[in-house]
Amino acid sequence: MTPPRSILHIITSLQMGGAEMALYRLVSALDTGLYQHSVIALTNDRPVGDLIRSLGIPVESLGYRPGFPSHRIIFRLKQRILDFNPDIVQTWMYHADFLGGLAAKLAGHYPVVWNIRHTISGKESLKRSTYWIAKLNALLSRSLPDKIICNADAGKQTHAAMGFDNEKMVVIENGFDLSRFSPDRISRAGVRDELSLPKDVSLMGMAARYHPQKDHANLLHAAVLLLQRHPDVYFLLWGSNVDNDNQELDGLVKTLDLQKRVLMLGLRLDTQRLFSALDIATLTSAYGEAFPQVVGEAMACGVPCVVTDVGDSNRIVGKTGRVVPPQNPQALANAWDELLSMPEVERRRLGEAARERIKNVFSLETMVDKYSLVYQNVLKKAATA
After folding, report:
1. Which of 122, 148, 234, 347 shows its CA 20 to 30 Å from the CA of 12?
2. Torsions phi, psi of 331, nearest 5?
3. Which CATH homologous superfamily contains domain 5-175+363-384?
4. Which residues of 159-186 are buried (b: 16+ CB within 10 A; e: fewer)?
């Protein structure tokens, strides 16, 4: 029997985010008889690293400080690659793509697969140092990686326009575990109890870290407009730095007189439970999204979504929700209003259609099969080189 192939995953960090959770789902679902995994985080390795460790997969952090990379981290990575001696080095996100790709080549021409999780709309869509790393990666894309996985069509197109090797790029959309993300009426009532809200109150929500890309200001200004028509609606927001300790965000909530209607929970790991409590989920990003994980998770929980037309959000939602232009609070409020004004049974059917779309188009099994095919092709190419 052929022993399993070893894959060393190198990722920028293991904070809670779409790329990090995609890695967790991938290593939890790939056939352990075919693949064995190890994970290196360049910066910090929590909380997602703990989830990966719970699968019996080794995880370590190099404690790298974000910024423009130094030669020390490259040679340290090179040594770790030699220690692991993997069949494939799979990197995740720009810094890890650059550093892991260079280190793998210095260590002995290990096959490298890059992973891109972003859509580039210009310099403003990335930090300055990250933008120049991406530009450098574009130049190196013809020599360092054997394959480049993008998680969205929009990401593939914008990176090809930036100069990434189009022939090496393949799109593998995020996949969702429908056994984990599913409608849950008990959670719907439980979350309302936890927050001391009436059981029949309408609850809107967004899961997103606090960052200009996510455009919480757009959401809050649209909330003011919606509350003029639906004064009993509550907004549930959670994600890194989305709490009352965030002076900028909390200040805007108070300026708009929304403190009685906007509940900010900070970083939460019970995402499925919170999504199941919502009547409508939303994502108000202004730029930069590729394939936003949280939209698919909400849909898998049977919740209709209103999203801004950034990245592949439109493609994910299809006809099961509403898509509006970014940075347009009036259009956002109108779309929320349209769904809230539906009879409950009609909105429930929309949520059922959303879950069915995830099942048919964006299942975890489909994602895993596509990754496995890429790995098999890369290994076959390496064997004949």
Report:
1. 122
2. -65, -40
3. Glycogen Phosphorylase B; (3.40.50.2000)
4. bbeeebbeebbbbbbbbbbbeebebbee
What does the DSSP 8-state code read for residue 64? Answer: P
pLDDT, one tens digit per residue, over 261-313 is 999 999 998 999 999 999 999 999 999 999 999 999 999 999 999 999 999 99
Tokens found for residue 175: 């996949």
What does 229-265 look like in DSSP terms, one character per residue? T-TT-EEEEESTT-STT-HHHHHHHHHTT-TTTEEE-
The answer to whether the CB of 211 falls within 8 A of the CB of 240 is no
CA distance 252 to 259: 9
Task: State which H helix or E strand residue 221 sits in.
Answer: helix 216-227
Q: How far apart are CA 120 and CA 353, in angstroms?
A: 30
DSSP-assigned beta bridge partners for residue 88: 7
> 185-361 maps to which CATH number?
3.40.50.2000
Q: Which residue has the higher pLDDT, 185 or 226?
A: 226
End-to-end CA distance of the chain: 24
**Residue spans per domain, the chain:** 5-175+363-384, 185-361
Question: Do the domains spanning 5-175+363-384 and 185-361 agree at the CATH topology level?
Answer: yes
Give the Cα separation of 377 and 369 in Å (integer).
Answer: 12
